[in-house]
Amino acid sequence: MTDTYTQFVNSGFGRSLAKQLGLPAPVPLRRHTKGGPLCDGPVAVIGEGEHVSDIVQLLLDHGIDTSTDAETYGGVVFDMSDARSPRDLAHMRENGADIVKRLGRNARIVVVGTDPDLLDAPAEVATQRALDGFVRSLAKELRSGATANLVYAPVEHNRPAVRSAVEFFLSGRSAFVDGQHVRLDENTPGVNLSADEPLAGKVAVVTGAARGIGAAIVEVLARDGATVVGVDVPAAQDALAKVVNRARGTSLALDVTAPDAGERILQHCHKRHGGFDIVVHNAGITRDKLFVNMSAEKWDQVMAVNLESILQLNEVFLGDEGLGTDGRVICLSSQSGFAGNRGQTNYSATKAGVIGLVDTTADIAADRGITVNAVAPGLIETEMTGRMPFATREVARRLSSLQQGGDPVDVAEAIAWLAQPASGAITGQTLRVCGQNFIGA
Amino acid sequence: MTNMPRKVAIVGGNRTPFARSNTAYRRASNQDLLTAALDGLIARFGLAGKRLGQVTAGAVMKHSRDFNLTRESVLATALDPATPGIDIQMACGTGLEAATTVANKIALGQIDAGVAGGSDTTSDAPIAVNEGLRRVLLDLGAAKTAAQRAKALAGLRPGHISPVLPATDEPRTGLSMGEHMARTALAFDVTRAEQDAIAAASHQKLAAAYERGFFDDLITPYLGLTQDNNLRPDSNAEKLAGLRTVFGDPETATMTAGNSTPLTDGASTVLLASTEWAEEHNLDPLAWFVDAETAAVDFVHGDEGLLMAPTHAVPRLLARHDLGLDDFDRVEIHEAFAATVACTLKAWESDTYCRDTLGLDGALGSIDPEKINVNGSSLAAGHPFAATGGRILAATAKELNELKQREGGTRRALISICAAGGQGVAAIVEA
């Protein structure tokens, strides 16, 4: 879908007109390119927490300047993990406000805190919980594609996990993730064998892979080094063939609701690719109708594909022959799962169900080193959202901090990151990829 | 180069759904169709970026610009561009003959893996200029002086404007294939009812195969078509009996549009490989391509029917392997017409025919109808000439593989395909 408005306000005349009229001014987002810089410009590191030296080292490793006297900044990282009283929070304003003022286009703010659930004293919990409100508000104040996100670290230091999360939020991979937080647990994550191809040697399965977000997931996982098996229904095999051929993967024609789907996926992965490490439950359908007019068929189909199939497949994938250590299960939830959507009682029910599903499945899979997470896209420019009425889509686009719809690749990047060995300290969570959409936030 | 010849594995296949002429694929060229069939095969077997020994395919109705049809199609796919593409042509035998060529190269150790295929479209058919106009244009091209050019142009006649449309008529007899078939059907006393029963069964069996998902890993949809659009699942003998006859003397005619294959567009591919290559690529062969035999008959001067060459190929092939018709679990006889199947079976059952025409001691034998074309054939699926061989070979390999998994033992199939020009190809497949 072409976002004509965004194109217009990024033209010379459009830009000045939008400025005079005070119209939204979305900018083209900075997205990951192989070999590209982590951030556009210097990144200031503020705070006195335990992570400062690691974060500075991360930036140095990427060749990013960390001086604090630059004209414009590519980003700023606040390490507030040691803040234990509300008074400590003032540190961000005192030392960061001036730098935030000088952030360039597509800049990044990352705040590192301590997971309040792991603290006991009311003042400590309140202080760390406060960071969430702070980040959400700051994200709404930022302009020109800049984002702000929060990393909640465990009390026991988990240095590689913090490094991986900060890196993701600084990078172009998180272009459409804004105003969100992730919690890291104490498990030492695995090591990405290669920076360019963090998923090298992994075998990944993507359901619903023929088009839209699924196709982008295949592409990004393959770019990151994974061998990808694209799964879709027989009727979608022509589109799927093009997707997997570009990714040099294999296609598998099956309906995820078939009783033997899990077994067949396992068999294909083990026989053809000698392993099975990552599954992305992306297959999903919409059958919109007001609840009072909803047919049994529409209700049942959506339940079967969007929720029941995942439960059924996970039974197999988390069984003895399934995913091994460092396995990854990643589901697709949706903004509708948080906020609901008129006409989508069935769809929203399944997408909210997914949030619960990953939360609980994560516990079951934890002792085997398998993480289970979900990604919840907001408005993403696909064939599916292209069928939305013009005005509805236009409003939905601007009703987010980034004032535009996301690209399928944005969802894929978040998934590819969660799939990395280095993301092993993240589980049971649902990460929104919505440009901080105001709905359901 | 030891242990020759090597076994040849049929790894799998892929085809487009077949479309009746001037329907779903009206605007698709042979290259589009063959590329689509290859794309699905490449995706299913993870061949992107891989160099294959060769891709051999062909088309019967072919534009002159498609002289490198297969190579151009390969270049349009994700295969390693260093994969050679070879065009062959043997009318309706093209697909199976392509497979034979690839299989032989694998058996000889010249290549390790290859794709055999075929494509045809009667929608995007080549239309040639009138022969008279062609002559004028050639003379014009050869002219060196203004006077010579003027002389060449003076040869133009109003009648030259009418183009030459492709036809399925036999050049040496001027008769259409249907007319030829009608003569053979009459000679073998094939009734209308026999033919309609074969046609109805073809539709019913193809529909049942779709229904049980048999084609899920044999077909990739194309241009919005997910299954063969000639298929009439509700076809039955009563409905077919109502159709008017189209070939032969109206007095004795038995052949209708319902028991003859329609003009069809589509493409098919089959992946063949050595055992080692299949193992290296973690692929389980469906079946083995054992051997093949081509034959031709003198339908111009002799008494033999145009489409009877496979009846000659099969006994020669069986003799080479010391096999009888009883030794096969499945038999695929390409349904150019329902009458083709009926005549072929009657010929093999006839002492006289087998003795006098085939030079055998007596009848070759009969075949249990339950073993013939078990998943439907060309009458239901349609028949894009060069694509039929690949369709039959891949489906037969899968059918045998399923049979073997169900019932164990070595399972064997015989394939018989007739072709224009009085030719035919037969092959043995084993699982």
TrEMBL record, chain A:
<dbReference type="InterPro" id="IPR002347">
    <property type="entry name" value="SDR_fam"/>
</dbReference>
<dbReference type="InterPro" id="IPR036291">
    <property type="entry name" value="NAD(P)-bd_dom_sf"/>
</dbReference>
<dbReference type="GO" id="GO:0016616">
    <property type="term" value="F:oxidoreductase activity, acting on the CH-OH group of donors, NAD or NADP as acceptor"/>
</dbReference>
<comment type="similarity">
    <text>Belongs to the short-chain dehydrogenases/reductases (SDR) family.</text>
</comment>
<protein>
    <submittedName>
        <fullName>3-oxoacyl-[acyl-carrier protein] reductase</fullName>
    </submittedName>
</protein>
<feature type="domain" description="Ketoreductase">
    <location>
        <begin position="202"/>
        <end position="383"/>
    </location>
</feature>
<dbReference type="InterPro" id="IPR057326">
    <property type="entry name" value="KR_dom"/>
</dbReference>
<dbReference type="Pfam" id="PF13561">
    <property type="entry name" value="adh_short_C2"/>
</dbReference>
<dbReference type="InterPro" id="IPR020904">
    <property type="entry name" value="Sc_DH/Rdtase_CS"/>
</dbReference>
Automatic annotation (TrEMBL), chain B:
<keyword id="KW-0808">Transferase</keyword>
<feature type="domain" description="Thiolase C-terminal">
    <location>
        <begin position="285"/>
        <end position="430"/>
    </location>
</feature>
<dbReference type="InterPro" id="IPR020616">
    <property type="entry name" value="Thiolase_N"/>
</dbReference>
<keyword id="KW-0012">Acyltransferase</keyword>
<feature type="active site" description="Proton acceptor">
    <location>
        <position position="418"/>
    </location>
</feature>
<dbReference type="GO" id="GO:0005829">
    <property type="term" value="C:cytosol"/>
</dbReference>
<dbReference type="Pfam" id="PF00108">
    <property type="entry name" value="Thiolase_N"/>
</dbReference>
<dbReference type="Pfam" id="PF02803">
    <property type="entry name" value="Thiolase_C"/>
</dbReference>
<dbReference type="InterPro" id="IPR016039">
    <property type="entry name" value="Thiolase-like"/>
</dbReference>
<dbReference type="InterPro" id="IPR050521">
    <property type="entry name" value="3-ketoacyl-CoA_Thiolase"/>
</dbReference>
<comment type="similarity">
    <text>Belongs to the thiolase-like superfamily. Thiolase family.</text>
</comment>
<protein>
    <submittedName>
        <fullName>Acetyl-CoA C-acetyltransferase</fullName>
    </submittedName>
</protein>
<feature type="domain" description="Thiolase N-terminal">
    <location>
        <begin position="8"/>
        <end position="275"/>
    </location>
</feature>
<feature type="active site" description="Proton acceptor">
    <location>
        <position position="383"/>
    </location>
</feature>
<dbReference type="InterPro" id="IPR020617">
    <property type="entry name" value="Thiolase_C"/>
</dbReference>
<feature type="active site" description="Acyl-thioester intermediate">
    <location>
        <position position="92"/>
    </location>
</feature>
<dbReference type="GO" id="GO:0016747">
    <property type="term" value="F:acyltransferase activity, transferring groups other than amino-acyl groups"/>
</dbReference>
<dbReference type="InterPro" id="IPR002155">
    <property type="entry name" value="Thiolase"/>
</dbReference>
<dbReference type="InterPro" id="IPR020610">
    <property type="entry name" value="Thiolase_AS"/>
</dbReference>
